[in-house]
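From the methods appendix. Each design record in this collection lists the tokenized structure first, followed by the designed amino acid sequence. Records were kept in a plain field format so they could be parsed without special tools. The example shown here is representative of the layout used throughout.

RECORD:
FOLD TOKENS (110 positions):
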């Protein structure tokens, strides 16, 4: 039994066509100023984020349920963070991707 079977993980097919598609994405990022290695990391980071988000994108509890469960004396920072409502799955994904992009920009080859 392979690792992918034992852990229920699926890996993309290793084909010339898949590598050609990956090459194009890495080339675009490389042309934008990233090293080829960093570009590959970026592809994996974004793909992993999007796939994981899709696998666990459960909408949060209702705002009222969250605020009722918070004790301002014990969790004042969380009470403040949730004051404008709970974070939706889309908001969490958007923030994560924006943060990745900022980190990627910091890695640009000069």
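DESIGN:
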């Amino acid at each position: 039994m392979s690792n992918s079977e034992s852990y229920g993980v699926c890996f993309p097919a290793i084909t010339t066509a898949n590598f050609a598609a990956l090459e194009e994405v890495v080339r675009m990022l490389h042309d934008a100023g990233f090293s080829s290695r960093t570009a590959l990391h970026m592809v994996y980071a974004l793909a992993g984020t999007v796939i994981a988000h899709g696998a666990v994108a459960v909408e949060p509890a209702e705002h009222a349920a969250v605020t009722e469960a918070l004790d301002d004396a014990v969790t004042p920072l969380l009470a403040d963070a949730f004051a404008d409502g709970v974070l939706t799955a889309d908001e969490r994904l958007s923030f994560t991707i924006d943060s990745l992009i900022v980190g990627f920009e910091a890695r640009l080859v000069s």
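APPENDIX NOTE: The mean pLDDT is 82.
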